[in-house]
Amino acid sequence: MDKKCKICRRAGEKLFLKGERCFTPKCAFGRKAYPPGKRDSERKHRSTVTEYGLQLREKQKVRNVYGLSEKQFSNYVKKVSSREGDPSEKLYEELETRLDNTVYRLGLAKSRSEARQFVSHGHIMVNGKRLTISSHQVKVGDIIKIRPGSMVKIPFMGLAERPSKGSVPAWLSFDQRKAEAAVLGKPILDKGASEFKLTSVIEYYSR
């Protein structure tokens, strides 16, 4: 069983860590929607989850979705907790404006892990400079492009003629023909529509 599939089963929901595969019958979560290691006799038993347990589960969910180590994630929380304003909104902004996540949001990669590979392999440029640091924070006004020499690579071949893979968030714009994107603003957390409960994450680290 793939490690990423086990993460989804442990979280009790699909986190779409493997991109398009998660939408197919091959997705392991659809076949085994219970925590890994559970025996048949244990699957029907529902244990009581404490508030701390729920906060821990949410923290693990967000951390795994963005593909961060515990140290990386806790550093983000410490960083935003020292700022003015709602720390959950600031945390969302920090996570979304990572370069690897931005590449994923533009639809250039099937998953955040693939987007991280594109960055680390030097396929992405920001303001004309080739960057290989996935955690680089993009800013308003930044121009993101696929490196010209990478356009002959399989993941990017024929990009201009490909059908769009979905809507790009409002804080970004993307010209698929030019393989060029711009950061128009800052990502804004909609707590009512968000898949994450970032307030619970902040509370977990505040203990």
Decide which structural class fits the backbone: alpha+beta
**Number of helical regions:** 9
By CATH, the topology of the largest domain is Ribosomal Protein S4 Delta 41, Chain A, domain 1
Oligomer: single chain
Order of strands, main sheet, comes to 2-1-3-5-4
Total strands: the figure is 5
End-to-end separation: 34 Å
What is the gyration radius calculated from CA atoms? 18 Å
Summarize the structure.
About 40% of the residues lie in helices and about 10% in strands.
Please describe the topology of this protein.
Layout: H1 3-11, H2 28-31, H3 40-43, H4 51-66, H5 70-81, H6 87-96, H7 99-105, H8 112-120, E1 124-126, E2 129-130, E3 143-146, E4 172-175, E5 180-183, H9 198-206
Structural description of this entry:
With 207 residues, the chain is of the alpha+beta class. It folds into two domains: 104 residues, Ribosomal Protein S4 Delta 41, Chain A, domain 1; 86 residues, Roll (Structural Genomics Hypothetical 15.5 Kd Protein In mrcA-pckA Intergenic Region, Chain A). 39% of the residues lie in helices and 8% in strands. The protein has nine helices and five strands. Strands 2-1-3-5-4 form a five-stranded antiparallel β-sheet, with no helix packed on it. Helix 5 crosses helix 6 and helix 6 crosses helix 9. The chain is globular.
